[in-house]
């Protein structure tokens, strides 16, 4: 199924962001490729369009009936630029709805420009191309035809600029900040305070320690000690505790 341009004559693209994309790419293509590519796009020679992070692709039918695979590249943002874009976008909570409705506010580009960043190609050097027709150094008419199909797609869906730069609509919505719940203290693991007996009051007399138990000489009976210290020593101990002299 081929794609036919809505524009049948004159310039392609009406919204400011589509015009900016077209102008930047036309500086890369050159006048000869511009006219041939536009004619091929209007003739419906581009069979399909796929837009992904960093590139737009499509098959283009040549006049001789051969299909060629064309590719136009616009680099996805590096992490630092991505953070700036998200910071600017999240300062405008209405932006996702406006993009989804087909509108890309120029104010966003103006704020990004302060950091020398743009969703659009800042110059022709930021764009690159490739085609299976091997028309070197190019760009060939197939790439040019793909460009005009992309311009009209971006005209209607500026979200495709986000896609090319490696972003999605969901990325523009600031995530809800959630703080992790503080862990409840584990009472079983906490050190337990030493239990101190209550001090005696002024009206109480501390209890006297119990006297040591009286020694029982029967514990020195040789029969009880033999297994421990032997017969001779057991007899000596017995006499020590039982002989009154």
Automatic annotation (TrEMBL):
This is SWIM-type domain-containing protein. The keyword Zinc-finger applies. Residues 181-207 have a biased composition (Low complexity). Residues 116-151 form the SWIM-type domain. It comes from Brachybacterium ginsengisoli. Coiled coil: none annotated. Residues 179-219 are annotated as: Disordered. GO terms for molecular function: zinc ion binding. Keywords: Metal-binding, Zinc, Zinc-finger. InterPro entries: Znf_SWIM (IPR007527).
